[in-house]
């Protein structure tokens, strides 16, 4: 089918309209879902959140959804202004008056486009991400701190993009018509780097870890992993990196040998069986290869986008349909990678908007699958308690709209995960607590019966406290022994008079009396005077 410029323009404008209508519908569904449940706290969170706080979260969710809707309209308006409004034509024409080198013009166009996107998003993003939270009392930072941090992050990202985009454009120019494969290869390298180096080894190498001394917990985790075909190398606790939002436990390593890393916030809140449920969910991601599947889908999505870029860079209708004059783009020498990338930054988030719920759906199904694995191997009650304890974002409602969440979040909400666990228990007639899988690993022999609600970190601190007390007692005993030994040496030095114990004279013969000594001294002094 021949794609004309008019057809591409109509497709883009229809996509913009559908995008805005869809966002309006999703926002309305989110508001209805938040306000529908204000009468009672969701099941499982009764002891964690009051009804007043739940109503406040619903009101905040309403205003936050409306603010994000405004951001969607601003983004769509900016895309229309840069394309149909001839924004790209004006900027490209101005840049070509400054330089005759097409590669420099393309690089400058990408840099300016990214800067304009930051400039437009900053004031409206301030209202959506700071002002609304400040009004409800959820923002802990001051305005100056938030603005300084946001500007620092934006400037750092924009500054990092300058040399990287220049190098990438140079490589694309060398590749010619197949430049989009170079971009896709860079995307693959980034995905693999983030998986194998940045998210696992890079973070663990740069952060201090401490072995967990609780022998009962170590035995519990080691036996659980062994029952499922894995071997535990070590069990350590570590502070959670700030860039991670969802992880609570890591199973680090290769093959069947794994090092279990528990983040401090999870160890501080969870009991042994609750922590085991979280470990079981992470074990499911490992056994079902969730991370390789995520990389595969990300690589497939990147291939589709890069292929669309490669096709557009060789067709004048692509540029003309999106309001970018072919005289300024495809009729210039080169691979046109920069012109196509600048267009993609503005238009592809809208054109590929329908793919967002598809990828989010796949990611959420993986999360639900991991929860079902933990439910069957450890227990639904244990996993539910762990999810409730680890949930932190009580600013947003616990009952979001399912379809809104599907379009905007790649992971299900904690409340949705709890509802899914309970529905699986009812549907499959599973026990509320304890395992139901064929692998009959029972946690009962490992539980802390003296303190069943004690968290892992509390137990660890108690063990370390006992170790310090024992070390203190040992140190005091050692110091007392050293003191006794020193006193004994002093006593031997003073008392030892060269006599054997058997031949020692009695006390009266050993030392003369006080009067005898004084008489002797008086006689000696009188003799000296005479």
UniProtKB/TrEMBL annotation:
GO biological process: proteolysis
Span of domain Peptidase M48: 213-418
Keyword Cytoplasm: no
Keywords, alphabetical: Hydrolase, Membrane, Metal-binding, Metalloprotease, Protease, Transmembrane, Transmembrane helix, Zinc
TM region positions: 6-26, 65-95, 107-130, 151-171, 177-193, 295-314, 334-355
Cofactor(s) required, per the database record: Zn(2+)
Highest taxon listed in the record's lineage: Bacteria
Pfam families: Peptidase_M48, Peptidase_M48_N
Ranges where the CAAX prenyl protease 1 N-terminal domain occurs: 37-190
InterPro entries, alphabetized: Peptidase_M48, Peptidase_M48_N
Keyword Transferase: no
Gene Ontology terms for molecular function: metal ion binding; metalloendopeptidase activity
Spans annotated as Disordered: 494-530
PANTHER family in the record: CAAX PRENYL PROTEASE 1
Identification of the protein by name: M48 family metalloprotease
């Amino acid at each position: 089918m021949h794609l004309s410029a008019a057809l591409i323009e109509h497709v883009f404008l229809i996509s913009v309209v559908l995008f805005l209508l869809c966002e309006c519908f999703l926002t309305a569904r989110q508001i209805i879902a938040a306000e529908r449940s204000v009468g009672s706290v969701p099941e499982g969170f009764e002891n964690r959140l009051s009804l007043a706080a739940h109503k406040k979260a619903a009101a905040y969710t309403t205003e936050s959804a409306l603010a994000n809707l405004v951001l969607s309209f601003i983004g769509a308006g900016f895309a229309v202004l840069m394309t149909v409004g001839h924004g790209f034509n004006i900027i490209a024409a101005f840049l070509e008056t400054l330089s005759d080198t097409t590669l420099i013009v393309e690089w400058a166009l990408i840099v300016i486009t990214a800067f304009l996107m930051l400039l437009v998003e900053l004031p409206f993003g301030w209202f959506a991400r700071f002002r609304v939270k400040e009004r409800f009392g959820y923002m802990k930072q001051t305005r100056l701190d938030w603005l300084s941090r946001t500007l620092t992050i934006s400037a750092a990202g924009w500054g990092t993009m300058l040399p990287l985009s220049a190098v990438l454009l140079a490589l694309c120019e060398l590749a010619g018509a197949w430049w989009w494969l170079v971009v896709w290869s860079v995307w693959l390298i980034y995905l693999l780097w983030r998986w194998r180096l940045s998210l696992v080894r890079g973070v663990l190498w740069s952060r201090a870890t401490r072995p967990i001394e609780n022998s009962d917990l170590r035995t519990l985790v080691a036996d659980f992993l062994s029952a499922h075909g894995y071997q535990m190398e070590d069990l350590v606790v570590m502070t959670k990196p700030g860039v991670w939002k969802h992880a609570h436990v890591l199973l680090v390593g290769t093959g069947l040998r794994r090092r279990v890393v528990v983040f401090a916030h999870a160890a501080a809140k969870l009991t042994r069986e609750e922590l085991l449920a979280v470990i079981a969910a992470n074990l499911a991601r490992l056994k079902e290869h969730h991370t390789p599947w995520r990389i595969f889908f990300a690589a497939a999505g990147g291939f589709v986008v890069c292929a669309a870029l490669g096709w557009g860079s060789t067709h004048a209708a692509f540029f003309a349909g999106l309001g970018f004059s072919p005289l300024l783009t495809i009729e210039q020498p080169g691979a046109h990678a920069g012109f196509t990338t600048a267009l993609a930054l503005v238009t592809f988030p809208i054109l590929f908007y329908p793919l967002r719920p598809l990828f989010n759906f796949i990611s959420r199904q993986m999360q639900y699958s991991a929860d079902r694995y933990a439910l069957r191997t450890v227990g639904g009650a244990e996993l539910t308690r762990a999810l409730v304890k680890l949930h932190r974002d009580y600013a947003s409602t616990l009952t979001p709209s399912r379809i809104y969440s599907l379009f905007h979040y790649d992971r299900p909400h904690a409340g949705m995960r709890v509802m899914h666990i309970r529905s699986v228990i009812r549907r499959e007639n599973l026990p509320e607590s304890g395992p139901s899988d064929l692998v009959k690993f029972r946690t009962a022999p490992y539980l802390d019966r003296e303190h069943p609600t004690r968290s892992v970190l509390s137990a660890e601190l108690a063990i370390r406290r006992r170790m310090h007390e024992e070390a203190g007692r040992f140190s005091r005993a050692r110091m007392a022994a050293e003191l006794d030994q020193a006193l004994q040496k002093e006593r031997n030095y003073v008392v030892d008079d060269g006599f054997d114990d058997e031949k020692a004279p009695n006390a009266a013969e050993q030392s003369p009396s006080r009067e005898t000594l004084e008489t002797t001294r008086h006689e000696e002094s009188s003799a000296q005077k005479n």
